[in-house]
């Protein structure tokens, strides 16, 4: 089953964008930080919220390949696109010297947290299925 | 409907007997499930015609457009395509695990996940099958349904 389809793609992107911006605003309020590049950062958030679901949606078509290489290749694609976006922003309005490293860290952390959650859910499903199988065998006996 | 199990010493073959006054929907449902469970599959092994109880089948597999029903002792070549075999015996506990295989859940010893998100199915006879990622969600959902039915 496709998790991200043409029909729900924009819904997912919008939800991700809302969550990201809300988290950004709450975090800044709590830390008392004032974002000097507010517009640029909001547009960057929007770009990532469209780019990451787009890359992840390809996952369905790669099911015949082992998961780990797919995960790594998708990560590399996300990083390459991140570098491209930062390079474009840098050309248009200029960025700080650590912009590339900062943005790579910013996409790496949620990406691998997401992958970890995906793995945790998978192994929990397998454990639950084993419990069901035991129950079925016990019922039969 | 009541279900009574009676242990009888000295019985040469186990049997099921159904007592009813009227064939209502529930009873028909049980009979239809039993018909499938007690069914035999027909096929050939080395050009010999063979009939095997479907409950003995560990898994159905499709290789080079031929469907095989594999038991602990042999693989029986069947005439029907895999899809129709799985549709016919879905109520007996056969679930798709890949495009070319369906496993009997009652013959599974345990499942194991690997880092590539594939599920390795260990059968009671020691054989291993691989479940593709694309069939995982459906497999777990069907397993829940089977548990629901067995509890009912």
Question: What this model shows, in words?
Answer:
The complex is a heterodimer of chains A (141) and B (152). Chain A has 141 residues and is mostly helical. Chain A has one domain (9-140). Chain A contains 4 helices and no strands. In chain A, helix 1 runs antiparallel to helix 2 (38-57) and helix 2 runs antiparallel to helix 3 (67-93). The longest helix of chain A is centred in the last third of the chain and has 42 residues, at 99-140. Chain A is elongated, with a radius of gyration of 19 Å. The mean pLDDT of chain A is 83. The model of chain B has no long low-confidence stretch (mean pLDDT 87). Chain B is globular. Chain B has helices at residues 25-37, 82-89, 133-151, and strands at residues 40-45, 48-53, 59-63, 66-70, 75-78, 94-98, 101-104, 108-113, 119-123, 128-131. Chain B is 26% helix and 33% strand. In chain B, the strands form 3 sheets. Chain B has a 5-stranded antiparallel β-sheet with strand order 5-4-3-7-6. A 3-stranded antiparallel β-sheet of chain B has the order 8-9-10. Chain B has one domain (25-151): LytTr DNA-binding domain (OB fold (Dihydrolipoamide Acetyltransferase, E2P)), CATH 2.40.50.1020. Chain B is an alpha+beta fold. Chain A binds chain B through residues 1, 63-64, 66-68, 119, 122-123, 125-126, 128-130, 132-133, 135-137, 139-140, and chain B through 105-106, 108, 110-113, 115-119, 132-134, 136-140, 143-144, 146-147, 150-151.
